Amino acid sequence: MINSALSSQQWLHQVHANGSTLGLPELLWYQRYTKVLDLSPKMAIQSKLAGTYLAKSKGRGMEFDEVRHYQNGDDVRTIDWRVTARTGKMHTKLFREEKERPVFILTDLSSSMHFGSTLLFKSVQAAHLASLIAWHVKKRGDKLGGIVFSQQQHRELKPHSRSHGVLRYFHALTEIHNSLQLAEASASPEVANLAPNSLKTGINFTTALAQLRRLVHPGSLVYILSDFSQFNADALRHIRAIRQHNEVSCCAISDPLELNIPVSSSGQAAVTDGQHSGVVELGNKNLQQRYAQQQALQQQQLQQQLSILGCKWLPISAAEPVLSQLERSWHG
To answer: Which residues have a Cβ under 8 Å from the Cβ of 301 and sit 6 or more positions away?
Structure first.
């Protein structure tokens, strides 16, 4: 699916991206790659709304399930006259109910996500993953909603179906992502006021989860896209509550420079955040080893805490196209 022979710059050009800012064309590009995901339900659907998924409960759906003896209160329209005539006893047909399963995506675009050392900013990678999920949701006919947030802005999006739900989510992604960069580029109030809508409605990770908890419907599929740098006990409590009645996938977005200090013969490395450049002292090999061990332990502890709740854990690197990583993760 991904041509591994392409250089980073060639791949960015193919996707219509530059790695640091976010545009609508790169989100639209993922529409053709929905097969890399599998969003089929793994738990009983509890939604009260009719939809396209078969629930475990029996009811007045369209999918035939079984035939049993007629009981008082059964709908006479479901009587199976052939079985009744053959057995001499009244039988009725049962059908599997079809229920709706909305999909909610929480995308973290806060300041810690606006960093990348190799291919993409973590925030851009999160938006690419959200785009791929959104297009798959549309293809399956589900409704899409969620929350996009930074410390400057946030958008709470109730579930909508078809292209309307997808494009509305994309506009929230691009607006909030680029507004934060615009605000950070200058401390001037005049520059900040150029960003669409007020920049005074930002929230943190815990607050975003609390809002998501109120927004989701039981039986939904929930994706949390973040670097989890603001993860704490309150955040864990909200995720636990969401997980009680929903499927939850936690996608941890990381950058290689956060996990390992690179080895350099000069003892220094040049880094940039897209706006500013600088030099980092790399230290010795013992420091590099201790740092890598500490970061690995933190990731392991986070994964364990979320896995205990029954959440799916999906690590995503900002240093590699998300499609390549998902192909390995979902298809072994």
So the answer is: none
Residue 63 domain boundaries: 52-99
Q: Are residues 77 and 199 in the same domain?
A: no
Residues 249-270 as b/e (b if ≥16 CB within 10 A, e otherwise) read bbbbbbbbbbbebeeeeeeebe
Domain boundary among 66, 81, 99: 99
Phi, psi of 140 (to 5 degrees): -80, -10
- Please indicate, yes or no, if residue 58 is contained in any of the structural domains: yes
Q: Are the beta carbons of 248 and 128 closer than 8 angstroms?
A: no
- Number of domains the chain contains: 2
Q: CATH number for the domain including 129? A: 3.40.50.410
Each residue's pLDDT, cut to its tens digit, for the chain (332 residues) gives: 555 667 889 999 999 999 999 999 999 999 999 888 876 656 544 444 444 444 444 444 445 567 888 888 788 788 888 888 989 888 888 765 555 689 999 999 999 999 998 899 999 999 999 999 999 999 988 999 999 999 989 999 999 988 899 999 999 999 999 988 776 665 555 544 544 444 458 899 999 999 999 999 999 999 999 999 999 999 999 999 999 999 999 999 999 988 887 665 555 555 544 455 555 555 567 777 887 888 889 999 999 999 999 999 999 999 999 999 988 876 55
